[in-house]
Input
Amino acid sequence: MMKYPFTLIYLISSLIIIALPFYWWTYNFGGLIVIETSPFQVSIYFLGTFLKISYVISAALEAFRIFLIIAISRDIYLFLKGKIIRNRTLPTLTVSYLVYPIIIYIVITYLMSSHGIHSNYSFLEIGKELVSVKYENANLLLTFAFYPQIIYWIALAISLLFIPSYLETRKLKK
Output
């Protein structure tokens, strides 16, 4: 269906980006906890030690990846057979990663305040921030770093292809 090139490019690109086994984001909480994540795998380190719970979480996420590979492969097949496909999976996944730092901020702020821990942690979306944490007589100076990997930016760019894909097929019935 070269009649709808953006849709075909979007579907094939989505399939490729979902199949790639790379982390999308890294969240580093002063080296105490480091989380490398994508919608399909996660690695969690505590004080530099890999936590084995990561295997369990990654197994479930890998099952989700396989499901999406099958679903998007089916969408490509149906699209090539003439059916109009509007798969919103990749835009949903990439935009959700922009929301995670907000959730992290809310959770950390709540946990610290509920346990009498004082800090100067302000909201951080992307980048580094030096955070001072005080609890009773202990003072910690931590560097929080949240940053996307290049694969995330590629996935986000591919997600934006959904817009022209939708526009070129919007007047058609599914």
